[in-house]
Amino acid sequence: MIDVAEAITRAHQEEWARVVASLARRFGDLDIAEEAAAEAFTVAVERWPLDGVPPNPGAWLTTTANRRAIDRIRRESKRDDKQKEAVAMHDDTPHEPLGAIEDDRLRLLFTCCHPALAPEARIALTLRMVGGLTVPEISKAFLVQETTMGQRITRAKNKIKAAHIPYRVPEETDLPERVTGVLAVLFLVFNEGYLSSGGHENAVRGDLTGEAIRLTRLVRALIPEDGEVAGLLALMLLIEARRTARVSATGELVRLDEQDRGAWDLALIAEGHALVRERLAVVANGGPRPGRYQILAAINAVHTSVRDARDTDWSQIVALYDQMLRVDASPIVRLNRAIAIAELDGPEVALAEIDRHLGPSLDEYHALHATRADLLRRLGRSGESRAAYDRALELAENSAEVALLTRRRDQLGPS
């Protein structure tokens, strides 16, 4: 017997983006698409327990949502205007070339991540329109008032309408740059779940990391040949595999070298490693050089390929960071490379590199001071280490990180 509640939940996860995207393309209005999709699921909650789950839930929901959208347009007595808007926004007319890839969900995702929108608006709109999260869920995830988040989403939708941002996948020549923007949004969502900011009660948010992975899988299915999409998915999987081992029972962040590797999710690791090997094979056969996400995935593959942290191949990790610097020479990449250098050449070499190159640029970044504190601790410079821990604690926001830094500082003994 079919569990109706489970069927509705599964349909929401699998079909929400498809229904909203289909309506957005037809009517050229995100408000109509969102409201009609929500109404269709409300009808499903009412009807499916009585009538049974339809053979094709997605088609049933799309048909119901379309009817609701048309009813709304009629009620508002604006049918002609809305139809004109839909034609103006529709990108399937003969005089306008089609995008490189045709899928309504991908159209919607590119629209939500359009560079004309502010970054925070792209995240909120993507989670609402593509992910199907409610405004309360999104506001709770990012510690923003519901009214503020609702206004943010409304402004983003109004901007799309006012700027006549089309519901389409970019042309092939523009696709790489626009895909980069989409991946950046998905990675921001994942990172907020991976290490929650702003003092959230949960230091690690599995709901957000899971949603980011689900959406990245969608993009991967739609653009399977894109190396950076595969790289980001692999990176997320390899990080997510360690989630249950990242926070102790007392709520303290557990460093990678101290984690219980037996608690890691081996299925996710195997999937992530397979994606990394796939991309390495493409490069070996003359394919394009790996980008940022592919290199980060390779670094995480090295970390997760050994069952004991002492067996980590730090020379390979340093080499990968050297490769990364050619793609992204940001201070944070240099900091992470210095952490690897400390394992390969010792803490003194790493500390000298950090103090020589990174101090001013990352002074407001808590991880810089936490790293310095650890290196100074290993060099026996306890007073300087304590001061660095104090500075890191001033800047840290994640509760699990604060707990770890506090314990390690207090282990140094009295100042």
UniProtKB/TrEMBL annotation:
InterPro entries listed in its UniProt record: DUF6596, RNA_pol_sigma-70_dom, RNA_pol_sigma70_r2, RNA_pol_sigma70_r4_t2, RNA_pol_sigma_r2, RNA_pol_sigma_r3/r4-like, TPR-like_helical_dom_sf, WH-like_DNA-bd_sf
Record key words, sorted: Sigma factor, Transcription, Transcription regulation
Domain DUF6596: 178-278
Extent of Basic and acidic residues compositional bias: 76-95
Molecular function (Gene Ontology), one example: sigma factor activity
Domain RNA polymerase sigma-70 region: start-end pairs: 16-78
Span list, region Disordered: 76-96
GO terms of biological process kind: DNA-templated transcription initiation
Transcription among keywords: yes
Domain RNA polymerase sigma factor 70 region 4 type intervals: 109-160
Keyword Transcription included in the entry's annotation: yes
NCBIfam families (alphabetical): sigma70-ECF
Similarity comment: Belongs to the sigma-70 factor family. ECF subfamily.
UniProt-listed PANTHER family: BLL6612 PROTEIN (PTHR47756:SF2), BLL6612 PROTEIN-RELATED (PTHR47756)
Name of the protein in question: RNA polymerase sigma-70 factor (ECF subfamily)
Annotated organism of origin: Nocardioides panzhihuensis
